[in-house]
Design brief:
The chain is α+β, with helices and mostly antiparallel strands. The strands form two sheets. Strands 1-2-3-6-7-9-8 form a seven-stranded antiparallel beta sheet. Strands 4-5 form a two-stranded antiparallel sheet. A hairpin with a 3-residue loop joins strand 8 and strand 9. Helix 2 crosses helix 4 and helix 3 packs antiparallel against helix 4. The longest helix is centred in the N-terminal third of the chain and has 18 residues. It is globular and about 45 Å long. It starts with 7 loop residues before the first strand and ends with a helix.
Length: 140
């Protein structure tokens, strides 16, 4: 059976951010950490070795696959900063139109630096993602 690698763990979020080599990216990571913490009200936790997540929910797909994931999160990766929001939320695209310079993947939004985006829209994206997932998976 498939074992999910990205699980919440007790690794230090601060130690992880301190390992970021690029000083500007490290500075942005601390600012993003504050934004996510204040906006969600959840403490930051490491998920796997490289994702900083906030809150959690348990999902179960029609296929039977199930697991736990953070409600929202981010990762200061070498190339870009990955922001994790709820996949499938129809309001996400509407908010991203006002977000600033970014690219998107299935569940990720990628930014180069915090200065490229509208922080107020980031806060809206975080709140919307948390609300969407808590409504979709109310038993958490």
């Amino acid at each position: 059976m498939y074992e999910l690698k990205t699980k919440e763990n007790d690794a230090s979020v601060i130690e992880f951010i301190e390992m970021v080599n690029n000083p500007k990216k490290k500075e942005d990571a601390y600012k993003i950490l504050d934004i996510f913490t204040e906006t969600t009200g959840y403490p930051a936790k490491m998920w796997g070795t490289s994702i900083i997540g906030f809150g959690s929910y348990h999902y179960k797909y029609a296929s039977g696959h199930e697991g736990d994931a953070p409600l929202v999160g981010f990762s200061p990766r070498k190339a870009k900063i990955s922001l994790y929001f709820a996949p499938g939320d129809p309001k996400r695209e509407e908010l991203l139109e006002r977000f600033g310079k970014h690219t998107t993947g299935k569940a990720c939004v990628y930014i180069n630096k915090l200065a490229d985006i509208d922080v107020e829209v980031l806060k809206e994206l975080i709140k919307q993602s948390v609300t969407f997932l808590q409504e979709l998976y109310p038993d958490n």
